[in-house]
Design a protein that fits this description.
There is one protein chain. This protein is α/β, with parallel strands linked by helices. Helices cover about 30% and strands about 30% of the residues. The chain contains 8 helices and 15 strands. Strands 3-5-4-11-12-13-10-14 form an 8-stranded mixed sheet. Strands 1, 2, 6, 7, 8, 9 and 15 form a 7-stranded mixed sheet that branches. α1 packs parallel to α3, α2 runs parallel beside α6 and α6 runs antiparallel to α7. It is globular, with a radius of gyration of 21 Å. Flavin-adenine dinucleotide (FAD) binds next to α1, β2, β7, β10 and β14. The site of flavin-adenine dinucleotide (FAD) has 39 residues, from α1, β2, β7, β10 and β14.
Length: about 375
């Protein structure tokens, strides 16, 4: 029997397995084939692959520096913010590390101690909570396997199936579906472009350059024709002068957007949730990697001395993530209320004044 079974080897699951691997008998499970020597038939995690300052800070706290093989070009120092409705755009200084997300995940996996058992290419199918253990059903190479553990950790992301097993969540985070598509980079703009338009979504859309390609994506309301809205979004960009050509690698993924702290759900003392599975992600920018690293670090701190009483320790540490999410929600009107955003952008406050010759800010909006 394992001490801990972790479902999901994204940043939160791998980080926890790395930190606790020498202290407990651990099994780490992921449906992706994440070991360094095999290629997954399950696609990479759909992601913009930007490490925001909070994620950089967490990596520093964890004593980690990123190998250069994980970086992609260009590195980005500004956000180009386009408000289609208000026909205004601005450039703001920001510091992102631009990475290849699949390589980042595989690198985190490579840091896990070898005494952690890993089952990759393996699907979590369900669990049963018994008095002093949890039975976990997995599907590997076409057959079902049952493993037992004292504790199960759900690190399985926005659409957590582990979370669904343990409770009927009364107040789940608002869920969006993101559609992201890759194009040849005809724009050559060294910016992370964030695009706001209420006709497309009440969240936001983006363009991120990556090694000669661009990722064009949008976080869309699930019940508001997301596919059609994504096509409309691209048409609007083309009307503004962006040129895309044929797209490839279209991916879809859920994104949680916790609008208040009652939507953060960390499970219980037998089946505990962390990372985006717990609803921890920025509701203003959808930045989730720092939350994945931070919540897994909090769970590590709560478990590292002993398992007894870990749940109360974890619950108390997660209060700081809840406070952070509450603060981010307070910022939302300034970013997402079209009138307020227009006023703020018009003031030009904190924006970079760019030379028109160097930066074609006068796109057709
Ligand atoms: C389109 C998009 C763009 C984003 N861009 C950014 C960005 O640029 N920067 C940023 O910081 N955040 C970004 N995010 C958010 C970020 O990707 C997540 O918040 C972060 O990855 C959460 O980490 P995690 O470890 O909690 O979960 P995940 O990274 O989602 O990992 C979950 C893991 O669980 C596995 N899994 C799921 N279900 C099962 C199952 N049933 N059985 C076995 N394994 C399973 C998955 O394969 C996956 O490996 C983006 C999200 C999306 C959707």
């Amino acid at each position: 029997m394992y001490d801990i079974i972790i479902i999901g080897a994204g940043p939160s699951g791998s980080n926890l397995a790395r930190l606790l691997g020498d202290k407990y008998k651990i099994l780490l499970v992921d449906k992706r084939a994440l070991s360094n020597d095999n290629n997954s038939s399950i696609p990479s995690k759909s992601c913009g692959g930007l490490l925001a300052p909070d994620a950089q800070e967490m990596l520093a706290k964890l004593g980690l520096g990123i190998p250069k093989e994980i970086l992609v070009s260009p590195q980005l120092f500004a956000v180009r913010t386009i408000d289609i409705q208000n026909k205004i755009e601005r450039l703001y200084q920001r510091f992102y590390i631009n990475i290849d997300r699949e390589k980042f995940d595989r690198w985190l996996v490579s840091l896990i101690p070898c005494n952690v058992d890993k089952k990759f290419g393996c699907l979590f199918k369900g669990l049963e909570i018994l008095e002093n253990k949890v039975k976990v059903t997995l599907s590997h190479n076409g057959s079902n396997i049952v493993e037992e553990s004292r504790l199960v950790v759900g690190a399985d992301g926005a659409n957590s199936f582990v979370g669904k097993q343990i409770h009927n969540v009364l107040n789940p985070p608002s869920k969006y579906i993101s559609i992201q598509q890759q194009f040849h980079d005809n724009c050559h703009q060294p910016y992370f472009t964030a695009i706001f338009d209420d006709e497309i979504t009440d969240f936001y859309s983006w363009i991120i350059p990556k090694d000669g390609k661009i990722l064009v994506g949008s976080a869309l309301k699930i019940d508001d024709n997301p596919k059609e809205k994504f096509e409309l979004f691209k048409d609007k960009l083309e009307d503004m002068g962006f040129k895309f050509g044929n797209g490839s690698n279209t991916s879809g993924a859920f994104i949680n957007r916790p609008r208040n702290i009652s939507q953060i759900n960390i499970g219980n003392n037998k089946v505990v949730l962390m990372g985006e599975a717990s609803g921890a992600i920025s509701p203003s920018s959808a930045e989730g990697i720092s939350y994945a690293l931070k919540s897994s670090y909090y769970l590590y701190e709560s478990l590292c001395i002993e398992m007894d009483g870990f749940y109360d320790r974890y619950k108390s540490k997660m209060k700081s993530i809840e406070a952070n999410i509450a603060l981010k929600n307070m910022k939302i009107p300034a970013m997402y209320n079209s009138t307020l955003r227009n006023i703020i952008m018009k003031t030009g406050i904190k924006s970079i004044t760019a030379s028109r010759e160097l930066y074609p800010i006068s796109s057709r909006i």
